[in-house]
Amino acid sequence: MTATKIRTYHKWFALLTALQLLIWMATGAYMVWMDIEFIRGKPLVNKVNGAVFHVKAPAYSFTDFIKDHPNATALSLYAHQDTLFYSAKIAGKLQRFSSVTGELLPQLNQQQALDAAEQVYTGKAKIIRATLHQQTAPNEISPHALPMWQVELDDAMHSTLYLSAVTGQLLSARHDYWRLFDIMWMLHIMDYETRENVHNPFLTIMSSLALLTTLFGIALTYISFRNPKSCEEQA
Amino acid sequence: MSCSNKLNTGIEILGKRHRNLAMQTLHKWLALIVGLQLLIWIVTGLAFNLIDEQFLDANPYRVDDKAQSFNSPLASTANLLQQYQTEGIIELKLTSVLSRAVYALTTTKQTRWFWADSLEPLSLSDAEIQAIAKGSYSGSGVISSAQILTNKTPFDASGSVAMFTTSDPLDTRIYIDTASGAVLAHQNSQSDLKDLLFMLHFMDYTPDNGIGFNHLLVQSISIGALFLGLSGIYILGHKCHQGQLSLPFIRRKTAIGKLALYTQDAQLLAEFTDLNGTYLESINRGRERLRTQCGGGGRCGLCKLRFVEQPPIPNDYDLDKLTATELAQGIRLSCQHEAHPSKLELVTKAQHRDWQKSEY
């Protein structure tokens, strides 16, 4: 293949793929430059706040719990706002129980959710609102942890905390940089609907064309850097 | 136009010309630096796109933990909670190892495991660790004896990590945390391929503590790649501006007329009627008659030809590569101008020699 053809092919394939290549490069640069722990909201919260307990054994013991709920799984004793609770999955559903009586406890009410959010949140912004999600979760969080409280904060990056409405424990934190990261990810994998399917035909087509663009580009780089003809030869 | 205005316009044109050429030089050097990694990104990205998840799956033989029912009585947690209260207790979980109940006590410092029936610290024999590995595995392979890993591992383990190999076709490996008895992971030749793809895509060539993408190497190359893309788009825009990006099927057909090419001695060399693209493309269609180094990028100057009549207005590349005398003689870079019916002459003897060689 002649250098002229290689340059021509590089030019035309680049014209087809230029925009997506630039999107891949820009989104990739954003994702590698942003600290993933910051994106995950780690600086916003301290999960240990309010979780440490200094009490003796609960009146209602693990043995009592197992006796009452023999099919319980993921049984855990934890503290929430200075009170001990049990959490366990009963028939696959997460529930909260009193560590004193063993009775099943209701979901957190709004005030309890607000208190829980304030306890784990390390920033100074005020809470704007708390919304309970029972059946469907906002797009930015997995629905597996439903039901949950969404607590929105009045800060510059629109931070939002998600807390389990069953246990009050922090599920996740979101903010505008996370949301932008999610958009970047969507553009990077070219799945504009679910944002998680990397096996989509758009990506196949554009990656294949980009591969050709790059291969011709690399050939052209070699051509550009090979030794130029001598002056005698050109004369 | 006043003298100062003319000067300003001249400086502006010169500055723009230099910018265009600088962009091409930048693109060329960035391609040299990041081109190979760009290729790796695209190939690995395409691999993730095309390879079915099941062919990268680490867990085809992994058995999920079963829900346990505990028959033996559990010891009171009072002493346990009392003993570690100063560390700040966060959670006490009831779990199981080999069907025996275990308390997992997490403090602000660490997690410890105790047999829930005796409150003795969890301590597992080699046979028990192997039994845990076996219990997590549904494949037909024979499980080896434990190998304790001494190097760093990517797993979040509290104690040393025991690795078991198997003789199945996927070369499954099982990793157990000897402190907790937890099955850390299954790995196999499929997941090794997945890890390799991630390692190449993220440029993390020391993935002992897990593959990450927040490191200086990939960050630096990503910026280089971004500027490679930006300079490429600038060049495309410039080519479009210079009329070098009109699509072939909507391009003006100039079959009416011929392009006649002469030697330096005014002897007719060839005539071309298929005038698509630039002069260079039209002349070299099917065979490289006019040799170039850069393939028509306006950078080597080897494709220069003399227009016998009505030379086109010189563009940035002509002005950069040709002398004032050459420009005055009607010499232009044939790669930079759209082909029209015209009369052209070769400029060097080398061109004539290459032409003759290309005929054989």
Automatic annotation (TrEMBL), chain A:
Taxonomic classification: Bacteria, Pseudomonadati, Pseudomonadota, Gammaproteobacteria, Alteromonadales
The entry's keywords: Membrane, Transmembrane, Transmembrane helix
Protein name: Peptidase
Keyword Transmembrane (UniProt): yes
Residue ranges crossing the lipid bilayer per the database entry: 12-33, 202-225
Top-level taxon in the UniProt lineage: Bacteria
UniProtKB/TrEMBL annotation, chain B:
InterPro entries: 2Fe-2S_ferredoxin-like_sf (IPR036010), 2Fe-2S_ferredoxin-type (IPR001041), Beta-grasp_dom_sf (IPR012675), PepSY-ass_TM (IPR005625)
Residue intervals passing through the bilayer: 29-51, 216-236
The keyword Transmembrane helix appears for this protein: yes
Keywords from the named record: Membrane, Transmembrane, Transmembrane helix, Ubiquinone
Any Pfam family the entry gives: PepSY_TM
Signal peptide per UniProt: none
2Fe-2S ferredoxin-type domain ranges (all copies): 286-337
Protein name as it appears in the record: PepSY domain-containing protein
